[in-house]
Amino acid sequence: MIGRLNHVAIAVPDLEAASAQYANTLGAKVNPPQDEPDHGVTVVFIELPNTKIELLYPLGENSPIQGFLDKNPSGGIHHICYEVDDILAARDKLKSEGARVLGTGEPKIGAHGKPVLFLHPKDFNGCLIELEQV
Ligand SMILES: C[C@@H](C(=O)O)C(=O)SCCNC(=O)CCNC(=O)[C@H](O)C(C)(C)COP(=O)(O)OP(=O)(O)OC[C@H]1O[C@@H](n2cnc3c(N)ncnc32)[C@H](O)[C@@H]1OP(=O)(O)O
Ligand SMILES: [Co+2]
């Protein structure tokens, strides 16, 4: 059901410093910051030859990443995003197998303009999973 790895997301305490580090120290192609108010985050995408890295920083008062950053003040890997062909079929299969779909259970439009859903980390070995329909 899952296909390619779309991105690995890293929550960071300083978006500008992390972006500069990826651009200058690691020599990666770093895009400008994008505010995603529907998701409570500002994101910076880093393009690698085989996947993307998504730097995440809280946006607004109820950011879903604030608790994670409070627990991990120097940052950390926050989620991985797998591509799926049919997000509603994937959601229904996962729910029928007991996985918890976060939020309302309805896909939101993600940073790439495509539908996304999140699965509870406690149901997947401590790893928060994002599904993106491509
Ligand atoms: C723009 C878009 C895109 O790419 O298109 C994005 O990625 S938006 C990316 C941001 N959006 C999201 O993350 C949306 C989905 N996320 C959420 O709904 C939330 O972040 C939750 C995953 C439910 C966690 O919420 P919150 O931190 O408030 O809950 P909590 O403190 O009660 O956490 C419950 C337990 O899960 C753990 N926990 C929390 N976040 C975790 C994470 N990212 N990875 C692994 N474990 C995690 C906590 O340590 C705790 O474990 P213990 O009980 O053992 O201490
Ligand atoms: Co993401």
UniProtKB/TrEMBL annotation:
PROSITE patterns: VOC (PS51819). Its EC number is 5.1.99.1. The keyword Isomerase applies. Residues 4-134 form the VOC domain. GO terms for biological process: L-methylmalonyl-CoA metabolic process. It comes from the Bacteria. GO terms for molecular function: metal ion binding; methylmalonyl-CoA epimerase activity. InterPro entries: Glyas_Bleomycin-R_OHBP_Dase, MeMalonyl-CoA_epimerase, MMCE/EMCE_epimerase, VOC_core. Keywords: Cobalt, Isomerase, Metal-binding. It catalyses: (R)-methylmalonyl-CoA = (S)-methylmalonyl-CoA. It is an enzyme of class 5 (isomerase). The keyword Secreted does not apply. Belongs to the methylmalonyl-CoA epimerase family. NCBIfam families: metmalonyl_epim. This is methylmalonyl-CoA epimerase. The lineage of its organism: Bacteria, Pseudomonadati, Pseudomonadota, Alphaproteobacteria, Rhodobacterales.
